[in-house]
Design a protein that fits this description.
The structure holds two protein chains of two kinds.
Chain A: E1 11-20, E2 23-33, E3 38-42, H1 49-57, E4 64-69, E5 72-73, E6 84-87, H2 99-109, H3 114-127, H4 143-155, E7 161-165, H5 173-190, E8 193-198, H6 201-207, E9 210-215, E10 218-223, H7 225-230, H8 235-240, E11 244-252, E12 255-258, E13 264-266, E14 275-282, E15 286-289, E16 300-313, E17 316-323, E18 328-334, E19 345-351, E20 356-359
Parallel strand pairs in A: 3-8, 3-9, 6-7, 7-8
Antiparallel strand pairs in A: 1-2, 1-4, 4-5, 9-10, 11-12, 11-14, 12-13, 14-20, 15-19, 16-17, 16-19, 17-18
Helix pairs in contact in A: 2-3, 2-4, 3-4
Chain B: H1 2-12, H2 27-50, H3 58-65, H4 67-100, H5 103-114, H6 121-132, H7 137-144, H8 158-169, H9 171-183, H10 186-194, H11 199-227, H12 231-236, H13 244-255, H14 258-288
Helix pairs in contact in B: 2-14, 3-14, 4-5, 4-8, 4-9, 4-11, 4-13, 6-8, 9-11, 10-11, 11-14, 13-14
The chains are: A alpha+beta, B mainly alpha.
The complex binds adenosine-5'-triphosphate and magnesium ion.
């Protein structure tokens, strides 16, 4: 048997609810993860990602709803009989066991013979490029090495599903980038189902087949990274997925009336339901110019704005701007060697063809500033 | 003051360090200890080779061959080992019960565990005599339910000594065990479960080995303390159950044989120091949270 030869399993959650001391944490979750898929769970702190993972792993019992794995109902099946590999944020290596004993632990639990055990340990460690570290103790390893041991330990018994809860959260940025690629490569090589929790948007975008965005115990949107980033379903997702600038408005027939009397423009073929809506641009889709007159007739919207702050970010400058309507957003411009001072007046050029129109719900993700 | 605060705050983070004595202005305390504790010990022990004049090692020869000394010595070691084993098993189990209890029960259990610390040793030992004597509550109960028709002699037995010392020394095991359990990372348990361990396997292969430091540290302390126990055996034990501390005292007070007393004290002190040297790292880690190198 080689690592990963077991066929991966699909995961299916239906109406999963969970409360802690009467406080609902998951409000009826529906989610299907296909066999062999790499799915990331993304969302702000406290939105229920870890809880969902715990319900899948069997560490917590859902109050209502069903969890099926490979078509089998998991109700009442304890974690040790689910055959799911779990990687924790803080590695959770057994501190009193050597690397080999840690990786061999699941095999010992399955009564694998000593000879075969050693062979499988060797293979799992070489998979994460840690051959020769068998006799080290966890405390003698760097953070990245510990994380690799944890991954080897979670893979060595050939689980059908691998759950990872912010596995790279404790690593520095550079090492995180390396490990992201390695995990991605492992996934492709072994073809198992991976559910990966993170609150790093870029990480989710880079690694996943699909992303599940959580908000306060509910799933806000499920989609491919491109869909989530370019076509967010809600204002919350749009805000959460990165810097943007958005405007509130009221849609009537083919016209949009901007909030606060900031102006109006024609929809030029965009299909938007009538009523309150938000128009959103990713911050790199906005251009900035010297102030000039408001022009609402072309496909480009030109609005006056005030710079609140600016931050230097390598080849780009991030500007936090306030529009006349009171809307605040972030735009990025190429660094010209001089940041506009706070309070200076500029114009933002918004191309209607790059706008995302969203129903204006009250629920927004606010970045603390 | 700054250094004290600094070191205390530093202690809250990853590797707590004890402030050096100087930083706490502890030298006066150390000086007092030196005068009232270390100095008398040195004087007593030095008598082992100077009393009677020119004694040399003859006192030690007596300590290691005299049947009375050996009998008292064996009493001491046997009682200490039994008490250590009993406190280890009961203490670890009790600590685990606190660890698993809900918040309200946890407070109650902790309170009961700490109660012995708030009453004097003499009072606690004396309380056991009240419980165990022929007219005490145990015999009253036994007589009431007709298990026996004459009071059972419980007091002045090795059993009474072991029982009393076990109860009195229990907190020294419970506290470090509980501390170790509170520090246990619950994710380790979940990891073990997800890797295929049933709850009992997760307990014995992960929880117990990781929290064992507290047990070892507490047991070393109990062993050391019970080797020198005096009041409890005197109050609860019979003439045949007395430990070496009692013999040392009687050599001084009735035989006036300071030389023999000194050499017995020297042997006990050496054993205790050796045990502490072996276990000090663990004791310090369990009680002070200090990583001692
Ligand atoms: N054992 C528990 N007892 C009580 N409340 C809990 C418990 N575990 C989680 N919660 C609560 O459930 C909610 C969701 O927690 P969860 O750990 O799933 O969030 P998360 O999305 O993983 O957040 P993070 O990104 O910070 O890890 C939080 O409000 C949390 O306080
Ligand atoms: Mg979490």
């Amino acid at each position: 048997m080689t690592l990963g030869s077991t066929s991966p399993a699909g995961i299916h959650l239906q109406g999963v609810r969970k409360s802690y001391r009467g406080q609902p944490v998951l409000h009826g979750l529906d989610l299907t993860v296909a066999a062999g898929e790499f799915v990331s769970m993304l969302g702000p702190s406290g939105s229920g990602k870890t809880t969902t993972l715990k319900v899948i792993a069997g560490f917590e019992q859902a109050d209502a709803g069903t969890v099926t794995l490979d078509g089998r109902d998991m109700d009442g099946i304890p974690p040790e009989r689910r055959n799911i590999g779990v990687v924790f944020q803080n590695y959770s290596l057994f501190p009193h066991m050597s690397v080999a004993a840690n990786v061999g632990f699941p095999l010992r639990m399955r009564k694998v013979g000593k000879q075969q055990r050693q062979e499988q340990i060797r293979r799992a460690l070489s998979l994460v490029e840690l051959g020769g570290y068998e006799d080290r103790m966890p405390r003698e390893l760097s953070g990245g090495q510990q994380q690799r041991v944890a991954i080897a330990r979670a893979l060595v018994f050939e689980p059908q599903v691998l759950l990872m809860d912010e596995p790279l959260g404790a690593l520095d940025r550079r090492l995180r980038a390396v490990m992201q690629l390695e995990i991605k490569e492992l996934h492709e090589r072994l073809g198992l189902t991976v559910v990966y929790v993170t609150h790093d948007q870029e990480e989710a975008l880079a690694m996943s087949d699909r992303i599940v965005v959580f908000n306060a115990g509910r799933i806000e949107q499920v989609g491919t990274p491109r869909e989530i980033f370019r076509n967010p379903a809600t204002v919350f997702v749009a805000d959460f997925m990165g810097d943007s600038l958005s405007l509130s408005g009221n849609v009537t027939a083919n016209q949009v009336q901007l909030a606060g009397g900031a102006g109006e423009f024609a929809l030029h073929g965009m299909v938007v339901p009538e009523g309150a809506a938000r128009f959103l641009w990713r911050s790199d889709a906005v251009r900035v110019a010297e102030p000039a007159v408001l022009d609402q007739n072309g496909p480009t919207l030109r609005l006056p704005a005030t710079v609140i702050t600016s931050a230097y970010g390598g080849d780009a400058l991030r500007l936090r701007v306030r529009l006349a309507s009171g809307d605040v957003g972030i735009v990025t411009v190429r660094d010209s060697g001089q940041a506009p001072p706070a309070g200076s007046a500029i114009s933002v050029l918004l191309d209607l063809s790059t706008a995302v129109a969203l129903p204006d719900g009250a629920d927004r993700y606010e970045v603390a500033s | 003051m700054n250094t004290v605060l600094g070191s205390l705050q530093g202690g809250g983070s990853r590797k707590p360090r004890l402030p050096r004595p100087a930083a706490l202005g502890m030298w006066p305390v150390l000086a007092v200890l030196l005068v009232i504790f270390v100095w008398p010990t040195v004087v007593i022990i030095s008598r082992s080779v100077t009393d009677p004049p020119g004694a040399g090692l003859s006192n030690f020869h007596r300590v290691l061959t005299d049947p009375t000394v050996l009998r008292f010595g064996w009493n001491t070691v046997r009682t200490a080992l039994i008490v250590t084993a009993a406190t280890a098993v009961i203490g670890y189990g009790y600590a685990y019960a606190i660890y698993r209890a809900g918040p309200a029960l946890r407070v109650l259990l902790l309170f009961c565990a700490l109660l012995p610390f708030w009453t004097s040793l003499l009072v606690r030992s004396f309380a056991w005599t009240v419980i165990l004597r022929d007219t005490g509550i145990v015999n009253w109960l036994l007589l009431r339910v007709d298990v026996v028709d004459h009071p059972v002699g419980l007091l002045r037995t090795p059993f009474a000594v072991t029982l009393g010392m076990t109860q009195i020394l229990l907190p020294f095991v419970i506290l470090p065990c509980y501390t170790a359990m509170m520090r246990f990372d619950r994710d380790l348990h979940l990891a073990a479960r997800s890797l295929g361990a049933r709850p009992s396997a997760a307990f014995w292969l992960v929880f117990f080995p990781v929290t064992r430091v507290g047990l070892v540290a507490g047991s070393i302390l109990v062993l050391v303390l019970s080797l020198g126990y005096y009041i409890t055996p005197v109050l609860l034990g019979g003439p045949g159950d007395q430990p070496i501390a009692v013999l040392i005292a009687s050599q001084v007070t009735t035989q006036l044989d300071w030389g023999l007393a000194g050499s017995m004290a020297a042997v006990v002190t050496a054993v205790v120091l050796a045990l502490l040297a072996l276990g000090w790292r663990l004791v310090a880690r369990a009680f002070l949270g200090e990583e001692v190198r």
